[in-house]
Amino acid sequence: MHFAVLIFASVATMTTFALDNGLMRTPPMGWLAWERFRCDIDCTNDPKNCISENLFIDMADRLYEDGWKELGYVYVNIDDCWASMDRDKDGRLQADPNRFPGGINKLARYMHDRGLKLGIYGDMGTHTCGGYPGTTVDKIDIDAQTFADWEVDMLKLDGCYSNAVEQELGYPLMSKALNATGRPIGYSCSWPAYQGGLPPKVNYTQLGQICNLWRNYGDIQDSWSSVLSIADWFFENQDILAPAAGPGRWNDPDMLVIGDFGLSMEQSRSQMALWAIMAAPLFMSNDLRTISSGARSILQNKMIISINQDPLGIQGRRILKEKSGIEVFWRPLSNNASALVFFSRRNDMPYRYQTSLSKLNYTTGSYKVTDVYTDQTDVLKDSTEFVVSVNPTEYTCNPVEVFLLTCCLRTVRTF
Ligand SMILES: *[C@@H]1O[C@H](CO)[C@@H](O)[C@H](O)[C@H]1NC(C)=O
Ligand SMILES: *[C@@H]1O[C@H](CO)[C@@H](O)[C@H](O)[C@H]1NC(C)=O
Ligand SMILES: *[C@@H]1O[C@H](CO)[C@@H](O)[C@H](O)[C@H]1NC(C)=O
Ligand SMILES: *[C@@H]1O[C@H](CO)[C@@H](O)[C@H](O)[C@H]1NC(C)=O
């Protein structure tokens, strides 16, 4: 269903106004607990899966030993339900002592010893979404300092239990407070998701100045309909969202659910391809201890990752929506390369979509094309008509193709 092409593209000089902490010049990659493990705090009956020190250590071991870290998946991120219900006597947040006996600082050290990073979760409001202590405006400085003292590398700041006025005050203040700690801490803001994700309520210029990434839209769930509804919203609003992204500042369509229960292999390839085109952060939320080899090979596909991580950091767009149900997505990449994804909304059978690079507005020349999911390469002239067999999304058989092209045979890209 997709066919990503790595191609020639003229590249405009970009002015960036990113948060000045030097972090996340390409979309961050790693693992995040929420979608797969939620708020499971029952360590008595479910010790392997409950939100505890052991879960994050298990995932860190898998990232470190199973080839994920080398590909860029370095963040191990805690989500909600890690905290004790009470702050300590000095007013600081503290981890639940039974589930995190070593404290967050010990986990951070465990990550750093392995070249990994630790992310934590907080909430701009009276409570987190799961009902744990939140960070009200008066608690911002102390919480930022606590996270820095623990040597945390990233903060996701949710927005439950606060109003628009408190959010407008709190999100920029947390950015300042993190900076004031002197520790580089990647900052993920859920703010726009609480304000509908669109201007005039959301100011993307400001977000790019205070946050490294931000959740624009609702939470992802373990289903294709959820993945598709998120992708649809992002591409329907691409004229607003794409210019907001760049090195150090990313739109976040939420976690990768590849390797869980809801997606077929084909749909898994689709999520990976669309997230790569969107320059989305790649946070897996799955069980790396038991992941299938099929899901792993999609998540570890070097070419897809290199598209996602392209240093220009330009977010791709949907360029065609055919009546036939075929859609084409495009992302310009560095070194005159680009990626194309062919996507089908059909539910009958593989559709033979005929096109040429010139029909997709590529300039005259020969292009080296690589199918990202099969590694097959070909050379196409801009005028050559070719057929992409795009499988229907709902099929579980074989509906994805991804290609990569380089321009003119002069700029063959190596991966
Ligand atoms: C804090 O902000 C200043 C100015 O924007 C920047 O130079 C510095 O690197 C930042 N420090 C951290 C730790 O984020
Ligand atoms: C958005 O934020 C930027 C940077 O903070 C500011 O200069 C601009 O005036 C804001 N735009 C609107 C419409 O409020
Ligand atoms: C990209 O293409 C342009 C126009 O063909 C060419 O001048 C330039 O050298 C190419 N850049 C690279 C990095 O290959
Ligand atoms: C190609 O360019 C033309 C003229 O600018 C535009 O109307 C058309 O939508 C473009 N097609 C694609 C697939 O981008």
From TrEMBL:
Transmembrane segments: none annotated. Its EC number is 3.2.1.-. GO terms for biological process: glycolipid catabolic process; glycoside catabolic process; oligosaccharide metabolic process. SUPFAM superfamilies: (Trans)glycosidases (SSF51445), Glycosyl hydrolase domain (SSF51011). It holds the Pfam family Melibiase_2. InterPro entries: Aldolase_TIM (IPR013785), GH (IPR017853), Glyco_hydro_27 (IPR002241), Glyco_hydro_27/36_CS (IPR000111), Glyco_hydro_b (IPR013780), Melibiase/NAGA_C (IPR035373). Belongs to the glycosyl hydrolase 27 family. Homodimer. This is Alpha-galactosidase. It comes from Poecilia mexicana. The lineage of its organism: Eukaryota, Metazoa, Chordata, Craniata, Vertebrata.
